[in-house]
Every structure is written in structure tokens, then in C-alpha cells.
Amino acid sequence: MIKDNQTVLGEDILNEIIENAKDFFRTEIVPNHIKKTEECRDLKVFRLNPFLDKYKASFITGNVEARSIAKALVYPRVIGTSINTIFGNKLQKFCSEVLEGFASTTSGIDIEFIDKLDGRRKYCQVKAGTNTINADDVETIINHFAGVKNLARTNNLNIGINDLIVGVFYGYSNELSGHYKRLQREHPVYVGAEFWHRLTGHIDFYKRITDAIGDVATETDGTELVEEIIDSLAKQIEESFIN
């Protein structure tokens, strides 16, 4: 079990986080990705755009055959919106299972940890990537942090504005959306390597954990499934879209 009172986390704890992350991807991300991919078998799940679908097919394959149109529909869904949405939806569970030793009991806070760079306890909301919040999310986060500040005053806790943070799992600070930049005016937003460095005390941990997830990726080969779905869609397109 993680004990967050060390200057840096030891190798045993780092390995525990990495193995938990790998197991999480095997049991939560991969099966759900396969399920979402299976849903692409039905042409009805796509909102066909007869003005653009042939163009997109030609752009990526050089022709407007039914199979090319199917590829233009499936590829963005399977390797873009689908997997990104799954990861975002599973983020809270990732925190509770992979980062269980940092779990927070404070309302509106995902994890708490001793910042390994400044030694202060941080109250952290976690987000997936640099473009994964909207205007309403900004207000929600600010309100959650205001609640923590009020609680701190009531209970005489030493919580400063810079101790209420947003941790972004991946990306770079120069990629932050305008919504994050607005949030930064009031609270720190730590992104990718810096977030994981502050959490663990190891400057290279971001690379280690993303490489570990990459190892899980090599265990999964969805080429046959994707090709089968493209073939099925192509037949449906020939029947209802080409003619």
C-alpha cells in the first residue's frame, strides 16, 4: 500500500502503480474499446454525410468505393473519439484503483498527495488531457476548490490557493486549452511529466508509466476485428448509400 509521506516514492510503490495501471488497461480499457468497436458494425451508428464521406474516402484511399467509405467512417471512431471517450469516462475509476493510496475523502477532490517538489499537501482534481474540459467544468472545479477553502477555514487547516490544483494525466503545458488557461488564473494546472513528477518525486515516471501502457498495447491486435467490420459496413453502404 502506498504511504505518501516520503520525499520520493520507492521503487516498490512505483512498480505497484505501474502494474495496477497495466491491469486497469487490460480489464477496463481494452474490453470497452472492443465493445465500442463492435458497435461500428451497424451503419446506423454513423451520421452519414453524403457531401463529405466520399471526399474523406478519396482523401485517405484515392477512391470512393464502398470499402473506402467504410474505412473513412470506422478509423476515426475506433482510434479517435471512441478510445478517448472511454479513457475519460474511466478516469475516476483509474484514480480509485490505480492511485488508491492517494484517494481523497474531501468532497470534490479526486486525490491528495504530498507534493514531492514543494513538500505541501495538494488537493487535486484529475483530468485526462489538455483539451478535456469545457466552460462548465471550469466553474465546477472553481466551486469545488472554494468549498475546500471554506472547509479549511472552518477547521483551521493550512490550505493555500496553490495547494488546490488540477493534475492533467498527459500532454504538455503549451497544449492547454483556453478553458484550462482560464482556470490557471486562480489555481495551478500541472500537466503530464510535471504532474507525475510532483506526485512521485521521479522526473522520469511519466515516461515509465506511458511506456508500461504501451506494453499492454502490444498484447492487443484488433486488425481482424476492424477489417471484418469494414467489410460488413461496405456491404451496407453498397446497399443504401452508393446506389
From TrEMBL:
Q: A Pfam family name for this chain?
A: RE_EcoO109I
Question: Has the keyword Hydrolase been applied to this entry?
Answer: yes
GO MF terms on file?
endonuclease activity
> Has the keyword Phosphoprotein been applied to this entry?
no
Q: Which CDD domains match?
A: PDDEXK_nuclease
Swiss-Prot/TrEMBL keywords? Endonuclease, Hydrolase, Nuclease
**Cross-referenced InterPro entries, in alphabetical order?**
EcoO109IR_cat_dom_sf (IPR012297), RE_EcoO109IR (IPR032793), Restrct_endonuc-II-like (IPR011335)
Segments forming domain Type II restriction endonuclease EcoO109IR: 22-220
Can you say what this protein is called?
Restriction endonuclease
